[in-house]
Here is the input.
Amino acid sequence: MKRYKVMIIDDQEMARQLFAWYFEGQEDYVVVCQAGTVSFVEEFVKTNQVDVVIMDVLMKDDVNGFVMAKRIKKICPQIKIVMVTSMPEVSWINKAKNMGIDSFWYKEASQETILSVVKRTMAGERVYPNEPPKVSVGQAFSTEITERELEVLRVMTKGSSNAAIARELGIAENTVKQHIRHMMEKTGCESRTELAIEARLSGVVVYMEDQ
Here is the structure.
């Protein structure tokens, strides 16, 4: 019987232990590596057999899970990658699909276990949620904020000025101001700063530098 070799990459020790626990006693799976950092992942997959990687999007390292997934696929295209997260960032599902990541799983919001997702992935399925979890941003739900508004909000959470947001997104500064005003009206936030804080707390947007 083939035993699929599992690598777990998550900077939260409790999450790593929980993922490993799911595979205990599974005759066709064995955990070959647990890591809280991505620093040695590339070297490990070059020198060891790995069939599936379970990896968090956000890590304490400078390199995020999306960047590392791309590197792993370049080294070993046959390795399956299941991306996991506890953040309801609205853009990540499509980002993962477009990158060719095999499956995507929400830690807190999924009814299906990670073991089930991995098994379906190894059977050739691409397992994805239909949509991100709906969360509150101030007095509004994340579903009430438009995609373009979220793009502005995402850049705003890193502390960018309206002019800097406009440059990064390639839109007019007045358009940025309009989007922010609309979001403040929807969420009930009384200031730009309050809106950015509410967004960060909700996890609806997470700014990541592409590396």
Remarks:
- The chain has a mean pLDDT of 93.
- DSSP finds nine helices and seven strands in the chain.
- Residues 102 and 125 are 8 Å apart (CA to CA).
- The first strand starts at residue 4 and ends at 9.
